[in-house]
């Protein structure tokens, strides 16, 4: 009797690897990818909890190719400081703002901001990034800064109480973390609980403080994480107003996970106004959840067409964390995708979210967003329907010819009629 794939398979368990000094990259966060016996995976002898190729999703310089301008902020890749300066030529006074980051970093590491509201502000940001690039000789992703929808300290909040988000009364920036499970070749599911990660500092428009551009640790050469060394309180406040990464914001003295990491379905409470009627929640009738689902569907439909950038196998699966931002009009944008997403952020263990064997049984709580098998089946059905229509038209044409005599007259009882 032939063994089933379940009998043959073994789960490849992750091995702990200490990230290199200089800040973690996405490759290091997916540290045990290289420990998987991919030859055995290809032969379907083992099951792996990772995709074979995933760069099209997790690399910030490749994601825009698949997400597209409709769903992802305008993005450019600059290889050196000369290309960086060329990108910003003529931008001074435009009012546009940009986020500059490594193509493969995470946890807000090495993030800088360039504010083109004024020549001086833009120059400060460009000079900072150019200096960093000369130090580490690494390319950067320059991404348009999306003007965010903001969350208000909700009604009834008191300083230090449940309604106080930190930094005094005011509006706060946030982003949404969603979990996405890719199973086999390929079925994609979205976990139905998203987390809203809220900045602990009140939102500030300015990205230049005292002539200095706001940014996290300057380069990988300088070591790990945190705010830029020696910054003053105002620069640090600006960083924690604009950066919504949980690992980064935990460094802030006012950070409280109960207030700054909440479920998406609770955000109607966060969005109440200060008037007597309470106002509307920031997500009410904005369709945020449906927008996230739509973005994921479009993204994976494109990824499925390029196996060189995103190659799935029938005996693999992987859990990703996708970050989304809501702009002032309520439109949702995908910012980036992360391998090895934090489970602590969701207050759950990985096995509770991922399940023991998603290939056999996707756990409860997942909503399907894309299936290559279903798409291919639909394409076959459409092709069959098109072929049927062609055959029908051809048969109709033949019948028409059969009913017409050699001289063009209709046939009746075998005789031509003039």
TrEMBL record:
Top-rank taxon, per record: Eukaryota
Cellular component GO terms held in the UniProt record: P-body
Database matches in Pfam families: TTL (PF03133)
Cited Gene3D superfamilies: ATP-grasp fold, B domain
Ranges for region Disordered: 395-418
Annotated protein name in UniProt: Uncharacterized protein
Source organism: Triparma columacea
